[in-house]
Amino acid sequence: MKSFTTYKVTKEHEGLTLEEYLKTILQYSGRKIQKLTRQKGIFLNGKKVFLQRKIKSQDVLRVLIAQDMNYGVEPEDGRVEILYEDEYMLVVNKPAYQLVHPTGQTTKGTLANYLAHHLQQQGIITTIRPIHRLDRETSGCVIFAKDDRSQFILEQQLKDRTLKRVYWALVKGIIHPSSATIDVPIGFHPTMANRRAVREKGDPAITRYRTLQNFSETSLIELQLDTGRTHQIRVHLAHIGYPLIGDGMYGIRTSWLSRQALHASSVSFNHLKSQQPITVQAPLPPDLIRAIDFCCSEKKS
């Protein structure tokens, strides 16, 4: 049986075309509207309707709810730490060394596989939709949408910077200035396909940072991304001369930390229904707490 979501048009939206209402007020993507039209999944006051029809106050709109038939990945039993969940989305705390989603030859053991199993146990069938990704060695907050409309809205929040991502990092050196904005483009590395580099004709990339604490030879900093380029934080920090501790590709490896010292500490967004601001935090994992303690002890000695 088909399921529908029902909306009642308010006076403030009277005069909009149905297409304008779907796109700007209900935030359905153009692709989704086309799909709904093909599926005959849009009804106004119980009747099929043209998208250019102007709507009136108290009109009742019914929109087909797409039913996902699978998860897009193979469900696999594994630990998932959920930091936040509602009917539209989840925020999950990713441990270091785990991939967000299957890629290349890796099809199992990812956060998406474990999350699919978690939802399966609740009787929920929905495609696993990560809104952003973290490198394998990076820990912390990852956002997943539960349906394609929620995915579109969250991606729009990410695009207009309503959705904010904050990271903590340990870097080599006493960073100066103590806070600044790094605004240099990033593109593919000229000789190494798996790397990125600062390139004059690369994609715009903006990272903001501020110092949280200085140690004898390292700094603990907080970073916020305005864009989401591959390896953005790592490339930008290396570019300004304060490479990420533990980063074997752009930074420096160290004996006292076995992975890159980068943690997605929080995400902030507007609730998809109420529009109330929400901030979700992921606690620092034990290895980074130990790394910070090590830096503190070095400063004291």
TrEMBL record:
Q: Which reaction does it catalyse?
A: a uridine in RNA = a pseudouridine in RNA
An example of a GO molecular function for this protein is: catalytic activity, acting on RNA
- Name the GO terms of the biological process aspect: enzyme-directed rRNA pseudouridine synthesis
Q: Which residues are in the Pseudouridine synthase RsuA/RluA-like domain?
A: 89-239
Where do the catalytic residues lie?
Answer: 135
Q: Which SUPFAM superfamilies match?
A: Pseudouridine synthase
Ordered alphabetically, the record's keywords are: Isomerase, RNA-binding
Q: Which domain of life is it from?
A: Bacteria
What Pfam families does UniProt report for this protein, alphabetically?
Answer: PseudoU_synth_2
Summarize the protein's role. Answer: Responsible for synthesis of pseudouridine from uracil.
Q: What is stated as this protein's family in its record? A: Belongs to the pseudouridine synthase RluA family.
Per its record, how is this protein called by name? Pseudouridine synthase
Q: Which organism is it from?
A: Pelosinus propionicus DSM 13327
